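Most newcomers find our protein records easier to grasp once they have seen one. A learned vocabulary of local backbone shapes supplies the integers on the structure line. Here is such a record, shown just as it appears in the course material:
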Amino acid sequence: MSATLLIIHHTPSPHCQEMFEAVLAGATDPEIEGVEVVRRPALTCSPSDALAADGYLIGSPVNLGYLSGAVKHAFDQLYYPCLDATRGRPFGVWLHGNEGTEGAVRALDGITAGLGWVRAADAVVVSGKPTKADLEACWNLGATVAASLME
């Protein structure tokens, strides 16, 4: 039986795409066995996607100091259906902004605390063009959350 890791992402820019690809590469590392990685753009993520997952990775640009509307929409759709059913599941987050990312971090902390999800790795928050170290942190984020689901 394999575990399922759901990646919910909104990647409208080249920087967000670079970070997403690094997270995905970490999550799908061949050394991580027994974990199926499912990717969903935030606007297409359904409550059934979230309910079927054993862990989560969430990626968002930070717009005007907050999560992207697409990622907020995903959480609006899945929050109540998942409220009791997904407590205790591990998650990780990556964010990209040009300035003022604190509001997005605060929002994600509040949403995931409400859901009862457990942070499996520190958030990766990048401003401006991602550096090699930023992309390594994204890779590590994906690998850490995926490895937390191995039996």
In short: The chain has a mean pLDDT of 96. The helical segments are 14-27, 47-52, 69-82, 102-115, 132-147. The first helix runs from residue 14 to 27.
